[in-house]
Every structure is written in structure tokens, then in C-alpha cells.
Amino acid sequence: MHSTQHQGRVLRDTKLCNSQMTLASRRDFLTRSGLGIGGLSLAYLLQSPSQLLAGDHPLAPKAPHFAPKAKRIIHIFLSGGPSHLDLFDPKPELVKHDGKPHEEMRGVLFGSPFKFKPYGDSGLELSELWERTSVHADDLCVIRSMKTDVPAHQAASRMLATGHSQLSRPSYGSWITYGLGSEADDLPAFVVLGRGGQGQLSSSSFLPPVFQGTTLNVDRGDVMADLRNPMISAPDQKHQLDVLASLNQEFLKKAPHEAELEARIQSFELAYQMQSAAPEAFDLDSESAETLKLYDLEDSLSRSMLAARRLLQRGVRVVQVFDGGWDHHQGLETRMRAKAGSLDRGLAALLHDLKANGMLDDTLVVVAGEFGRTPVRQAGSVGEGMGRDHNHRGFSVMLAGGGIRGGYAHGSTDDFGRSAVDREVHVHDLHATMLHLLGFDHQKLTYHFSGRDYRLTDIHGRLVKEILA
After folding, report:
1. Whether residue 382 sits in one domain with residue 262
2. 40-50 tens-digit pLDDT
């Protein structure tokens, strides 16, 4: 009897919702329909895309603290810890003493097998591995005095992505979208290309879930596969969601301002809109013949670079492109040449493409891994199998565009490249500078949680003024 009365009450409430639908506001309608995707679809069809981010929507565009140099950011995340000694940081003394034991570092010194030389009018020294990207030397800034807290992949990657090596914190992409909102009506504000950025690296943590990164896989033909259910028909799926909507309706009567459910509703809104927008954004073949020739679309990283440019062009604020395989404990010379070749082709194409589309001046490009490598050989590696171990004391990051001083190398490591010794830059300082270029004082972009104000840089961070244009 109780069950029958409950079902009757749900039916009456559903009829009431239907009778008032035409008079209800958008938010009231979504509240009444819970997570019913059919109703959410109707909500979209009844309004233009520009209305979706209007008013009090958490992703509505917001002004930063001051006029920004950059409007958007792309981070090429070289996951695994690329060797700064073979890419960015020339060390003639290390080459000179190659093969000699080093007591302090407890190993045999390993000079880079790759030649360095100056490029561009600025004379910026880079490895020969940057054959194509070196054409853009006068647009590039290399920070050679980076350091982080620990030489462990997971902790250091978390530090680079979130500003904290231990605890779960919001990723910098979530902080940026929290501060700026979105310019994209029908795409996420923060997109991660590649599976390496899942979990805590793209999490919004204690920020509202709507600011979390959306992971998409460019290598898969159908980027929207995760938003479709191949197991049941559309009518059956709608029936399931309608039942779920009735349950949420009961729940929302008791908690009408439930933040998690509101965020979930917003995610369904975006998922619906993406079903038409994302395939167009990822239709790389629609590019001109000249652009397609510029990129090596047989290469996964190049495809991601082109997809990233298309996403940024359509209003996405932050794109992280994850490129794994940079953990060269063994066979560094051969493996580094292959990895750097792919990166060099893709990055050179991206920089050229951003320039051609008038986007480089207000797009911040960051090329960075979680740490660098040691100047000594990996223990046990010999001959062609020689590699390097992890090194958090000193490494390099490369930047371009978006207010960055081009043709400039900032700071230095010691003669062998083990530790940052001049104008040291911690990851917190890099984050503070990234936020500054986007128009934020890193000390003022805060979120109150669990009794105190939090920020990306925690209680640390300083602006690296020397690298600003």
C-alpha cells in the first residue's frame, strides 16, 4: 500500500511538472527534471548556445584581475621526465668529462650525445634535436633553473599539475576555468588530450566539479564514444533516465540547492551539446591542404597538437596534451631521438599554425615535464643502453607566446646540470607566472574551503618577471 501511494505521488508530481513546464524557468525546469536527458535535450533546443553560459552559470565568462597578455593556454606535458641535458641545457663541461666517475653523485658522468648550437637572431642555444622548432627560436623562452620537490613521477606530476605533491588539490586548469569561465558554448573549458591526464592531474578537487578537465582521446575515431550508450536503444535510455529523474525530483525536494547534483545536471547539459560540437572540432580532415601538410597526421602527437589548436580556436581556455614515454633510464640516445623527433615536428607545426591564425600572441604555450634527468649514467646501463635517472634539483621548461620574452634563456644549473644555481624557479613560481599572464594575481585567486582560503600556489610562489615580454 505504501509503495502504491509513493508511485501515485511520483506520477502526480510528474504530471504537475509537465503542466508547468512552459512557465518554468530554465533552472526550475532542470531542478524538476533531475537528470532526465530527454528534458535536458529540450532545454537546449529551446535556447541559443550563447544563452547557456549567461547569467549565474559557473562557466559564464569572467574578467581577470587585470588586463591579460594571454587568453588561453596549451601545455605539452612530457610525461616521464625529459632530459634537460639533451634538449635544453648545454653542458660543455659534462661532455668534456664524459665517462669519468663523480663521487658526490655516485656515478659515471654522461655527456650528451647531441650537439648544441645557437639559433635565431637571439642566439638561443638548443639541442640539434630541435631541427624544426629552432626556426622559432626567437619566440622561445627556456627556463633552465627549474626545480621541484621530489624525484618521483606521481608526486612530481601532481606538483606540476596541481601545485601540491601530496594532497588532492585542483589542477591549474580547474583554477583557470574557475577564474575566467568559458568562451565555448558547446565545449568544455578545460580539455585533456591523452589518457595520462586522468585522475588527480585534471581534477577540480574541492572546486565545484563543473571546473574539472574533460579527457578526450584523439587517437580514437569517435571521440564521443564515452557520451553514448551502445548497449541500449535511445528510447530505452530515455525511459531509464526518466525514472532517474523522478527519483532526483524526490531528492531535490529535500535538498533543492544540492551542489553536486547541480554540477551533475550541468555535466549532462554539456554532454548533450558536445554530441554535435565535438565531432566538428575534431574533424581534422576539414583543415586546408596547406595545414594538413604542415602537421604529420600519421603521428599521434601531431594530431593532438592540431586538435588542440582547433579547440582553443573555438573558445576552450586550457588544453593539456599528454605525451608519455620520456622516462629514459635505458637507451637514451636512440629513444630520445625518436621521441624528440615526434615532438619537434608537432611543436614546430603548432607554433607556425598559431602564428598563421593570429593566435600566438595571446596563447601561452608551455612545454614541460615533471622533472629532469641526472648528469650521471643510470646505474647498470652501459654502451648504447645508457640512460639517466630522475633529477628534481634542476631541469628546464620551454615557453612561447602569450606575453613571454622570446629568444631568452633564464637561469642556469651548475656546470654538470645537476642543480639549479642561478635565479632558481620552483614550480610554484611557474604557476604564479602563468596566472599573471592570464591576468591574475596568484595570491588573490582563492577559494574558501574547509575553513580557509586556498590558492594554486598555496603559501608560495613569486612572479618571474624576467621572462615577461
Report:
1. no
2. 333 333 334 44
